[in-house]
Amino acid sequence: MAGPVPVASSLSDIYTVDAIGTQAKRWNNLLARFQTIYGxxxxxxxxxxxxxxxxxxxxxxxxxxxxxxAITADSLLAVSTKVASTNTKxxxxxIKIANVQDAKFxxxxxxxxxxxxxxxxxxxxxxxxxxxxxxxxxxxxxxKHGNDFEPKSMxxxxxxxxxxxxxLSSSAAFVSSSALAVMVANGEKTVxxxxxxxxxxxxxxxxxxxxxxxxxxxxxxxxxxxxxxxxFTPSLKVRPVSFPKTNPELTFLIAQSFVTADKFVTGPVHxxxxxxxxxxxxxxLNAVLNPPGTQLPSDASPLSVSLHGFHETYxxxxxxxxxxxxxxxxxxxxxxxxxxxxEKLDKRDGYTREEIAxxxxxxxxxxxxxxxSRFPVRAEKFKLRxxxxxxxxxxxxxxxxxxxxxxxxxxTDDTSEYNAQLGDLLNQxxxxxxxxxxxxxxxxxxxxxxARKAGSYGSRLTGAGWGGCSVHLVPAGKVKAVxxxxxxxxxxxLDLSEEQKEAAVVVSKPGSGSAVYLVDDKPGPVVVDDxxxxxxxx
Length: 538
Ligand code: ATP
Ligand code: GLA
Ligand code: MG
Description:
The protein is an alpha+beta fold. The chain contains 16 helices and 13 strands. It has helices at about 15-40, 125-145, 170-185, 195-205, 215-220, 265, 270-290, 305-320, 330-345, 355-360, 365-370, 385-405, 415-435, 440-455, 480-490, 500-505, and strands spanning about 5-10, 45-55, 65-80, 90-100, 110-115, 155-160, 225-230, 235-240, 250-255, 460, 470-475, 505-510, 515-520. The strands form 3 sheets. It has a 7-stranded mixed β-sheet with strand order 1-13-2-3-6-4-5, with helices on both faces. A 4-stranded antiparallel β-sheet has the order 10-11-9-12. Helix 7 crosses helix 12 (about 385-405) and helix 12 runs antiparallel to helix 13 (about 415-435). It is globular. Alpha-D-galactopyranose binds near residues 60, 212 and 463.
């Protein structure tokens, strides 16, 4: 799985057969528009997909493992580096960037100084996502080639089909494809997937959202036909996960709520606030459960202290002091942490800054500096109890889900009971997201209950929540019934275009991750399959 980002020689390397016709038209349209806008052909296309998360919600930034998979919808960046330098400022390179949806995402031109990429995270501007990929990629290029490295000018046309703010991570698809495009434009013949993912994780935070690492990992590493188990400690690791053969066969349906959840806009009261609450909970539990003076390890989480860091420290100290020779299983550790949290964090209405600072033995100013200065948050009280309970119990559900997948069903003629166990874990995740983590919304709750009544084994929000998308584990024979129920009871009440109605509920098959397609090598329409059927172009 690790290794270089693949260079696709044909669209068949990227998409499944059923998607090829539509995708080939889209790619050819992108390349033709590139020629029209810039008066020359693109040299290559960088591609990264969106993702749907199966289980493990809002725990990646606490450094617990998650199970997403890539989807077909993606971000494409067509690029050429042959940019006329006549009007570029001295000591600068030029970035011209346009979007096929030019009414929504207007074109821009930037002269960027060699030394630094300035990103104004106070404004909500689509090109910030490109710039964050650019900044991260240039840091890596400087590490490789020295500080005098001079970036190339680029002209770019973007086409993204992941719905923006729809919970399917259009942002990570965009940032990962941007970073990949910058690496290739600057002459990197091979781009290491782990390096690309790590830089995309850190650099996406420059747009003002303190996100974890699930989306970028799924976007870069996924392989067609498999979900992806992503773990973050001691370092980023991924492995493909297959679903066992079941009867009835299992299908994942993605259903849009059409409630746009823009994390940039609501960050101070939603996403970024949750990140702060989780780190504060880690610091608080460390202060009340570990010996005085214990420092949590500084880790790769957005605020450098995480619930996972507390988890490891707590049990390492317990084992050391009891002289235990055998470690407890991670499942029993998480069960113990759920019980300890319920006991030690007993204030259900939340904790003020003063109350937390007193327990951490620091001033409120120090607390603000450490936890709330990087990304502003708005809260009188921090719900440490609820957030820690969600994280530990969700981490446990991921382990249970994985062990079910590894066990395989016993009665292969009828796996209904096994399917229901998987679905039940998804339903428990939704309950916890709705009631404990408070990241659902009434529209998603409604879609979940409609789908369950129509035969879904398990239904829940996917991605950040507060709108966006839901995911449903549905027996193949019930897909039609679930789709019809959603249409009848939910979508018919909204004012949707034909295109939106079409995209509202889709069956999601695990897709492939990032790829580069070199146009230079193959002038003319994109190649669809040059291995099995001879070159066929659309
Ligand atoms: P989630 O993170 O919940 O999975 P998401 O990634 O789609 O959902 P955000 O993280 O809020 O949502 O990112 C959405 C932003 O990404 C948009 O507001 C826009 O700035 C940028 N973006 C996404 N798709 C495109 C696109 N096709 N063209 C230009 N900008 C885009
Ligand atoms: C967003 C973030 C991810 C993750 C999810 C919630 O998609 O970008 O890092 O935190 O929300 O699981
Ligand atoms: Mg996002």
